[in-house]
Specification:
The protein is mainly β. The chain contains two helices and eleven strands. It has one domain: Beta Barrel (Lipocalin), CATH 2.40.128. The radius of gyration is 20 Å and the shape is elongated. This is Polyisoprenoid-binding protein. Keywords: Signal. Pfam families: YceI.
Length: about 190
């Protein structure tokens, strides 16, 4: 009886090892990965910006329906297309880049529909505070990159956050909204 229990335990651990062996690591391609944001401007138009410098990795196991993300964003690289606006966003009123030069998103909860990722749940660290964020996929695909001859996976992900959760409240008293839409376009190359 004891021998069959040990054999069953070994069989289960080897199956677990096979599933784990299917996980692959992907490096984010900085030329096809962008983190952008949108916030309303007095109910009239939408202010948009992006972070030009970012890096990270994704671990993805489509068969095991699991994954991990580790994304680091250089907050000093914020780019709205207007130097004065960039400087204001870099100031202590908003991103306080002198004190908090990086933004971090770390996730380990992936949801799937078949082998397609539908959402990624993780933690966003901004201004020294960490709160949960769920990025929902509007697109997801994996393909063999014809130039690199390697598998590339990625998609378009979105979330709406309340910026005051991270202590970013400038402008709330005169009409800037709390809600900010985050858009993460990512492609990552299998290593």
């Amino acid at each position: 009886m004891r021998l069959s229990f040990v054999a069953a335990a070994l069989a289960l651990s080897s199956v677990g090892g096979l599933v784990h062996a299917q996980a692959a690591t992907y490096a984010m391609d900085p030329t096809h990965t962008f983190v952008t944001f949108e916030i309303g401007h007095f109910g009239t138009s939408t202010n948009r910006g992006r972070f030009d410098k970012k890096e990270g990795t994704v671990q993805l196991d489509r068969a095991g329906k699991s994954g991990k993300v580790d994304l680091t964003i250089d907050a000093t690289s914020i780019n709205t297309g207007t130097d004065g606006f960039n400087k204001h966003l870099q100031s202590a009123d908003f991103f306080d880049v002198a004190k908090y030069p990086t933004i971090k998103f770390v996730a380990d909860k992936f949801s799937f529909n078949g082998d397609k990722v539908t959402e990624v749940a993780g933690q966003l660290t901004l201004l020294g505070k960490t709160n949960p964020v769920i990025l929902k996929a509007s697109n997801f695909n994996c393909y063999i990159n014809p130039m690199l001859k390697r598998e590339t996976c990625g998609g378009d992900f979105e979330a709406t956050i309340q910026r005051t959760q991270w202590g970013m409240g400038w402008g709330m008293n005169f009409g800037f909204p709390d809600a900010v839409k985050l858009i993460v376009q990512v492609e990552a190359i299998k290593q």
